Amino acid sequence: MSNIIVGLDIGTSFVRVVIAENDDDGHLEIIGCAKKPSAGLRNGVIVNIDAATSVIKETIEEAEQEAGVEVTSVYTAVGGSQVESLNSRGAVAVDPTSKNRALEISESAKKRAIEVSHAVPRSPDKSLIHVIPQEYTIDTMSGVKDPIGMMGVRLEVAVHLVTASITALSNINQSLIRAGYQYDDIMLKTLASTYATVHEDERELGSILIDLGGGTTDVMVLNKGAPVYTCSIPVGGNLVTSDISVVKGIPVSVAEKIKIEKGCCWIQGNEKEEEVIIPGVGGRPPELTNRYELCEIIASRMEEIFTLVKKDVVRNSNLKKLSGSIVLTGGGSLMPGVVELCESVWGTSSVRVGCAPDLGGADQSYREPDFATVTGLVIANKDSVRKEKGHKSKRMDSSSGEGKMGLLKSFIKKFF
Known about the structure:
Distance between the termini: 27 Å
Oligomer: single chain
Strand order of the largest sheet: 3-2-1-6-13
Number of strands: 20
């Protein structure tokens, strides 16, 4: 029996959908994908449910036509300023009777430690969406990945907690309901992107994923196989477009087109020879410029974005040395020269654009870095769909106790 899994990324600039088929042998194949300009969003937040609903429905329907299947529910993601994270710890006695004796660590003890770890105060307008174990400590032995079967008296776990705005989650849910769909689960955008683009050895060594979106730049720092820090910088590709619009005195739509067609953010030396025609506005004649001048406008803003990310990561994460890679995803990573600029700001050559693995399908656009989140959603959840034996799971309310425990169990399994 084949199972259908659908990933939906509701971004500031575009809505993207990927439909995959997962057979009983665990073979995942992409059978449909679609991408349409967003509406009703600002900086990754839904501000007009009706407009967002319309685009979501149109994008899913386009992907349905390509895949030849009917979609009832989706996996989706959340990011931007509506998400917060922190690291926490929890410790319990392995023996639930509180007697000071060494016992074999069971699944029950592991679960109790995790439950204690996320029993921390949080804002009443935030809902816990992820509890991701980083490592375990058994008595004085730290750095344990899976304590099951080992002997010990005291078990401690370090976790990465991710919360999201209840209002933002409700707006996403409401938009899907109005479009005629349910959501099976919701995931942090950068976490989904890591499944599609960051290799296992890079996670262990210490890597940074930078999602260059339209409204925000989202970041996840990984070390020893798990996230250690996540953040969102309220600057994105839309500000690059705005800079071009202001400097050249042209509409934002025209500036966006020029940015996509002629934009670059790393000067090679031959850009002065490449002419760029700026359309006239309000009766003004067209202006002739070159790609060098356009690159200067774009590069200054992109350098600012990478600098802000670097300062935030250095100040707030415990990653002392970058032994892995900096992986760039999102629409901004499609711009020529973005790797070279990032290498210059960070002072490393270990920078690459994140591309998803080849999962078949005639349309290979899902492998592009701007599809990293939506492709990661189907990769991350393929095992869940196989267990459910179909694509008719109920909608999960992440603010409920049942929803939290379901998310907790699934992400423990995914990271270990």
